[in-house]
Specification:
Elements: H1 3-13, H2 18-25, H3 29-36, H4 44-54, H5 58-62, H6 83-95, E1 112-118, E2 121-129, E3 132-141, E4 144-155, H7 162-169, E5 183-186, E6 189-198, E7 201-210, E8 213-224
Antiparallel strand pairs: 1-2, 2-3, 3-4, 4-8, 5-6, 6-7, 7-8
Helix pairs in contact: 2-3
Length: about 230
């Protein structure tokens, strides 16, 4: 269930009109209406208020998932991909694109390639384009591919900030080792990332808003390789 569907369901279950919900949050009815049709997205303060009102976690409120495919990164749910590899992946991401790491020799015409190596582990991020882009991140252990993630995204508005995106991606964690955190805000920029599945098989998307305007979106999917 998407955020807008979740919001409508929770609001109606509590017997609230859009006007009453807006009054509780201290905003206009039009703002609530835009949330419920997916035209805009609440900031972190409003998400916290919605979480408190409906007695659900922010994670459940913003994530688009069925209960049986909820994201949990736990040692006993990671098959042959161990915690050491996920730790390495996070360090690699923070050291390459997010950390403004140097690009290597293009592996394809006009591609951007970034590589990070520790011992027998190797990470390569290779992408094409700029404002509209697609690419793949992959991991090798002893030169054997073990995991990959494909992504495609685009800039939607001139108010997009590449620096903010890098700031978000530098916050990648072992609990959410894909792009950025579930929710993050700095000033007028807001970011959220929605995941379905687990590290071995997942799909997701991320968005960046400047105030109430969506300025960036990216879709990704991936999993373990055998």
């Amino acid at each position: 269930m998407s955020f807008q569907e979740q919001l409508q369901t929770l609001r109606k279950a509590k017997g609230l009109s859009q006007e009453k919900l807006a009054e509780f949050l201290g905003i206009s009815r039009q703002a609530v209406a835009k949330w419920e049709v997916g035209q805009s997205y609440p900031d972190i303060a409003r998400l916290i208020s919605l979480s408190d009102l409906f007695k659900v976690s922010i994670d459940k409120l913003v994530n688009d998932y069925e209960e049986n495919c909820r994201l949990t990164i736990e040692e006993n749910k990671i098959n042959y991909i161990d915690g050491r590899i996920i730790d390495f992946l996070c360090r690699a991401k923070k050291s390459t694109y997010a950390g403004k790491g140097p690009e290597g020799k293009p592996s394809r015409p006009n591609s951007h390639d970034l590589e990070y190596v520790e011992g027998n582990l190797k990470y390569i991020d290779s992408y094409l384009g700029g404002e509209k882009f697609s690419g793949e991140e992959a991991l090798w252990k002893d030169e054997i591919p073990v995991w990959s993630m494909n992504y495609i995204g685009r800039v939607l508005d001139e108010r997009f900030s590449g620096s903010f995106l890098k700031e978000v991606l530098s916050l990648v964690s072992k609990e959410n080792p894909y792009r950025g955190p579930v929710i993050y805000q700095n000033g007028q920029y807001k970011y959220h990332c929605i995941i379905n599945g687990e590290f071995n098989w997942f799909q997701g998307h991320e968005e960046i808003y400047f105030e109430d305007i969506k300025v960036f979106e990216c879709f990704f999917h991936g999993g373990a390789i055998k």
